[in-house]
Every structure is written in structure tokens, then in C-alpha cells.
Amino acid sequence: MPDAIQTPQVKTLPDAQTVTEVTHWTDRLFSFRCTRPRSLRFRSGEFVMIGLLDERGKPLLRAYSIASPSWDEELEFYSIKVPDGPLTSRLQHIQPGDEIILRPKPVGTLVLDALLPGKRIWFLATGTGIAPFASLMRDPETYEKFEQVVMMHTCRTVEELEYGRRLVESLKDDPLIGEMVEGKLRYYPTTTREESPHMGRITDNLTSGKVFADMAIAPMDRAHDRAMVCGSLAFNHDVKAVLEDFGLREGANSEPLEYVVEKAFVGDGI
Question: Taking all residues of the chain, what is their mean pLDDT, rounded to a whole number?
Fold first, then answer.
């Protein structure tokens, strides 16, 4: 359960924001919310640099997707815990009322503007790569632009899917987009190590056609399908090959095409 908010402290860090809520999902995964700078404007799917001071008093920053939608009054982040990671070994211990550093300069490739118009959009993620899609799934513009939204999320175990599962289930009761989500959002969670209703890697389920058969939907085609990808460097590389086999081409903010990949989260040991 989320920890309760405490009285905010006087800000002492550069670009300081106050943590308002922390939820530990597993021994490896946690999410937290913090105050939002008044000056921050971002597009759902973008990321910012957040962090803490290191032992020398220097800012230790990493790129984190904003998991909350652009209209939210607070900011949400979803993170892995790396025991020896320079940042997450400390960040995982934050409590409501603590401060973090947040540089209010959002950037990123996983934005709707980087895709050509289409009928169906695929969000393809492993692990904490679901964070930018947590933002996009809660944005009305996603449902205004696409007739169908497919969220494919793969983790090792069932408990690692819990953040995404709970978020998706909550959307039907969301006062802003509940009616828009109905009949449009399709959720396809899979595991790779623990038995669950759907098993296997995203690449395998796409290339075998299993995901299309399971959901009784047509295979991908360039005329109608668009995709966004967020995961490890190896995952991104493998999914790009699969998407291109379906005829999709990689786009960017400057040149919208059929799919985009976030390249900011390829490092280990965070």
C-alpha cells in the first residue's frame, strides 16, 4: 500500500520536488509520485532527468519516463531497484516528504506526434518500460487518434506485472477517459519465467501470430498499424526487426512514420 504523505520540507536540493507517495510492488520494483514544477509542460510519453545528490554532494541523475499523463497535477515514476546501482540503491529508500532532483526539461521519442495517423497503436514494453505507456494510456489524445490501443507488457513473473495490471483495470473507472477506453484498449500481459495465462516474449508472440489469434484481431500492416517500443537495448533491437518484417518503418519527432523506439533507457546498473 502507498505510504501516506507527510508535511513537505523546505526545499534544499537544486530543482527540488517533494515525494508525495511511494509504492513498493516487489523487491525489485517500486513507483513514486512527487510534486510537479509549475513550469513543467510535457507531452505524454516523454521523460525527464531525476535523481539525488551523491556522497560528494553532486547531482546523480538518470532519465526516467513520466508515468503520469500530461494533465496530472503530480508526476509519477516507475523504477527498478538495483542493489548496487549508483542512483536506485538510494532512490528506492525515499519516503513521502523527502526531496528529489527533477530537471524540468522533458524530451523523448515516444510521443504521438512522432507517428503517422493510423487506426491501431501497439505499446510494446518489458519491465519498467511500461512507464511511458502508463502516461499515454491515460491521455485522451491516444483514444482520439486511434480506434484500438494494444498494450503488450512482458515480465519474468506475475507479480512484476501488477503495476501495469492495476493501472489498466483502473482506467475503465477513470472519470476523464473511462468511456473512451471502453472497447478500445486491449491488454496482453505475458510472463517468461512463471506460469500465467499468456506466456512468451513479445517478439515470439508477434512473429508466431499468437497474440493476433488470442485477441482475434488482424495481423499488423503498415497501412493501419503504429507502434511504440520501450525496453532494453536487446529488446528494442529485436522488436525493431519484427516490426520491419511487418513493413513498419522507424520514425522520429522530425520525421513521423509507423513506429518509434525510446533509446534513452539502454544502460544497466542504474
Answer: 92
